[in-house]
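Worked example 2:
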Amino acid sequence: CHQERPRNKDTQNNLAISPAEHAATVARDQLRNAESESRSAKEAAKTASDYKEAVEKARLHFQKEIEALLPDTKFSEPGQKLSEDELNLLLAHAHRKIENLTKAHVKMQATEHERAQMFQRQQERVAKDLERQRAELDATLEVKLVKQQEAFEHELQQQLRRQVAAHTEHLKEALEEQRQELNRMFGLEVEKKIIEERAQHNAALSSSVAKLQGMEEYLKARDELDRLSQQAKGLWLACQGLRHTLVHGPASGTSGPQSLTADVQLVERAAPMSPYVPLVLASIPEEALTRGVYPEVALKERFAHVERTCRRVALVDDQRPSSLLRYLASYLQSLCVIYPKELPEEELADEQRVL
């Protein structure tokens, strides 16, 4: 550092020395950068020249191989043609050359891969060493900077003492006013920066709090939605069980009245918080819960049995006694008469129901 070398007594109080030294340092840095760019350009030119020489050597080497392989052929003569044997020999040599080059290329790739890995490891070690040296250099520079700052402050104090002793009271008052003005401006600037940083921090904090509140509300709504969804699924399954009992009856296959107490209790437990389910369940008669009801399938079978019996005795008069012959004729008539069967509305409308 230029502050560490001893100063001449004639120039130590000259305030123009420091800017000149700084300009000289900047010029030296620019000169070093220019030298580095010049070396890079020279290396690029040397690489291009080496590549050109390598291409020329490869061409001459290939020409010598062809001349050694076909010594009787003059390739420099115009209109020269190769025979089939010469072409086959040239193709075989080319195949061998390609195989050798392929093997060399694979070997070179493996070598380059190993070199790349080694270079990467070296780079990692160099980066670690560079980081360590940089940390050490930063620490050293920090220590030097502190020392230089202390020395500069001490030297500045000495100069101020000499100036106070040499100059008049008016200059002292002017310096004091300037110092106070600078302190006031610096205080105002610092206070302004603190207010701006505090406003930015409050804005970021408010935004973060709003986002957290939004996420909390979303999670609560999602939890409530999942709970209602599970409750709806349970209620749907319980209603499906009640519907199955009303339509098909129990799994045992009995056709008598079936109690609905168990199914109704399942439906009631499936929706404990719903205000409508208890009202709907309260409309079910008590007799249906205790005595039970007949399944829909059993009722349809009974009505079908009654209908078949009525068709078989349609000719029998219930007001007077009938003969066995009339019973037989009525039975034969029921066998011969074809009754139309109505199709369900779903089949007429070509609709499909999903249960």
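The two ends are 91 Å apart (CA to CA). Confidence is low (pLDDT under 50) at residues 1-6.
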